[in-house]
Design brief:
10 helices; 9 strands; 42% helix; alpha/beta; three-stranded mixed β-sheet; six-stranded mixed β-sheet
Length: 263
């Protein structure tokens, strides 16, 4: 059976990591399969939002260290040479999709372990729906495995340098309640409900006017390290193209749709 399964629900896709024997740890073939799955999602004109899910009670336990041990024993580590160009939005990362710059949102449904490279995959997603007994952690700290799938970049941007340095340097376990407090998780749900809750959220996102949502998302992603004036200018450059959508939305509101904060 394939370690990566995709389910096409029309506007929403579900990408499932399925290697129960290693708590969904990722080896090189699995990384390539995940990368291909999200490229296919990006290319599907009907698809609007993806849910990234780990089967059998775990999101992902990181890079497959048994696979790494076999590579070390064979002396052939050529498959780990994954240099890339900064302007390549489709580059393959060690864990698969971690270097992809998609134009559509991805929601992580986190159960069980989301550690080491698995935590980096969750950080790559736009939002994280986490079960109350799930946990994050830079567990690779114990074995000298570096964060090379965006962890040192996305974690400080998401939760701030103080929290990020704590997690990066100590590798400690972060349970759901703390993850929610520090902004690492967006939602916490009961055990066994992350997938369904992520699907509800994904369908909600898929129901919004897509061009405007994607323009706002892209502006938020691109504003890092820009001076304020340039950041505001790139926001305006994207937003002004959506003014016709705003006017159409204003007409719907005037006709009675979406009043009183209804979604």
């Amino acid at each position: 059976m394939s370690a990566v399964a995709t389910e096409n629900l029309g506007e929403v896709w579900v990408v499932t990591l399925d290697r129960p024997e290693v708590r969904n740890a990722v080896d090189s073939p699995t990384a390539q399969a995940l990368h291909a799955a999200f490229l296919a999602f990006e290319a599907d004109a009907q698809a609007r939002v993806a849910v990234f899910h780990g089967a059998h009670g775990h999101f992902c336990a990181g890079w497959d260290l048994q696979h790494g041990a076999r590579l070390a024993a064979s002396g052939d580590t050529s498959g780990l040479d994954l240099d890339f160009a900064a302007d390549d939005p489709h580059a393959l990362g060690p864990m698969g999709p971690s270097r992809l710059q998609l134009t559509k949102p991805v929601v992580a449904a986190v159960s069980g372990a989301a550690v080491a490279g698995g935590m980096e995959l969750a950080l790559w997603c736009d939002m994280r729906v986490m079960e109350e007994d799930a946990y994050f952690g830079v567990y690779c700290r114990r074995f000298g495995v570096p964060l090379i799938d965006g962890g040192t970049v996305r974690l400080p941007r998401l939760i701030g340098m103080g929290h990020a340095m704590d997690l990066i340097l100590t590798g400690r376990k972060v349970e759901a309640a703390e993850a929610l407090r520090m902004g690492l998780a967006n939602r916490v749900v009961p055990q066994g409900q992350a997938r369904e809750a992520a699907l509800v959220l994904a369908h909600q996102l898929a129901g919004f006017p897509q061009a405007t949502m994607r323009a706002d998302r892209e502006s938020a992603l691109r504003q890092w390290d820009l001076p304020l004036g340039e950041a505001l200018l790139q926001e305006w450059a994207r937003g002004r193209e959506r003014i016709p959508d705003a006017l159409a939305g204003a007409q719907r509101f005037a006709a009675g749709q979406g009043r009183h904060g209804q979604f």
